[in-house]
């Protein structure tokens, strides 16, 4: 029977704790529904985010000779429909800090990617980059990269296999080189979901390592905006602001080119106003992550002796680019 865990103090020392992360819509809640054999309890057929908080569920670990339980941790994805990326990062970091202070570390992390996505740009790329910065090099050996929603592939399994190959050879390569493994939930069944989780548990049975974000916030005592994950998010905000600014400039030029009033001009003006509102919102969120020169110096002193993030050296860093996956 599944048991919700509301307090970090309720974790047991022998719990096998697996956290699920990935973009909104990648199937985190659906995956957990398969594991708990409770179809539709957490996931539903909607593009909107289902998970609003970090949720932990304890269930019996089938086949474990030691009688241990497994704790499945569902996390909200970035690009959440009801909150900002900064709020999502704060939710995840608060949970990680609270558990770490109770000497609770993760047994593994499963990062999900929807195989139906034929482009690795925008939201999927940003989620992957922040995930890499959040984990850091050392914890990469606890990560399992899993593709989901194979049952929704209308192009056929061959296309899915080609996309998976490109993910491994290009986008996931820096994580794989640092110890991450790859798997696929090809069948939307409880049996296949447990096969994936059991594979991770068996490979990492006695391995527990604090992830980089926990070390930064608790051991080093830096603020969230000074962490690698915080700065990765700040970089994405800068990219987003540049795109919105260019969009507004283009719309303004079109509006000014139209002489007199008209439906087309009104529509363009309305679109401009909407983009401007989004720009102001993004600017406000980015401002909370901007560091002062003093904070930059403090961060440098902290990180000189700390493990580097996976993407900190530039393997996934910098501006996100529009790169197509196999059609």
UniProtKB/TrEMBL annotation:
One Pfam family here: MMR_HSR1
CDD domains the record matches: Ras_like_GTPase
Domain G: 18-81
Name of the molecule in the record: G domain-containing protein
Superkingdom assignment: Eukaryota
Bilayer-crossing regions: none
Molecular function terms, GO-annotated: GTP binding
């Amino acid at each position: 029977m599944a048991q919700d865990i509301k307090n970090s103090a309720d974790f047991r020392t022998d719990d096998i704790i697996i956290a699920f992360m990935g973009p909104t819509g990648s199937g985190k809640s659906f995956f957990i529904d398969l594991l708990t054999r409770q179809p539709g309890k957490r996931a539903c057929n909607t593009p909107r985010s289902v998970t609003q908080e970090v949720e932990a569920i304890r269930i019996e670990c089938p086949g474990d000779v030691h009688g241990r339980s497994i704790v499945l941790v569902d996390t909200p994805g970035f690009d959440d429909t009801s909150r900002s990326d900064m709020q999502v990062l704060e939710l995840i970091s608060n949970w990680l800090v609270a558990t770490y202070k109770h000497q609770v570390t993760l047994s593994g992390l499963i990062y999900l990617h929807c195989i139906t996505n034929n482009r690795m740009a925008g939201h999927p790329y940003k989620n992957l980059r922040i995930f890499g910065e959040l984990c850091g090099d050392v914890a990469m050996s606890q990560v399992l990269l899993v593709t989901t929603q194979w049952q929704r592939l209308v192009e056929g399994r061959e296309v899915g296999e080609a996309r998976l190959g490109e993910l491994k050879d290009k986008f996931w390569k820096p994580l794989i080189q640092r110890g991450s493994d790859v798997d696929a939930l090809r069948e939307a069944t409880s049996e296949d979901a447990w096969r994936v989780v059991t594979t991770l548990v068996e490979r990492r049975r006695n391995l527990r390592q604090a992830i980089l974000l926990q070390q930064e916030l608790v051991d080093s005592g830096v603020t969230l905006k000074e962490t690698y994950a915080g700065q990765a998010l700040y970089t994405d905000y800068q990219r987003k602001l540049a795109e919105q600014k260019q969009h507004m400039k283009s719309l303004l030029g079109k509006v000014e080119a139209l002489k007199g009033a008209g439906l087309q001009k009104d529509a363009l003006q309305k679109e401009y106003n909407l983009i401007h509102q989004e720009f102001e919102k993004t600017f406000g969120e980015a401002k909370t992550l901007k560091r002062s020169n003093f904070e930059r110096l403090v961060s440098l002193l902290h990180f000189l002796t700390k493990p580097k993030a996976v993407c900190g050296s530039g393997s996934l860093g910098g501006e996100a680019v529009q790169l197509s996956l196999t059609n």
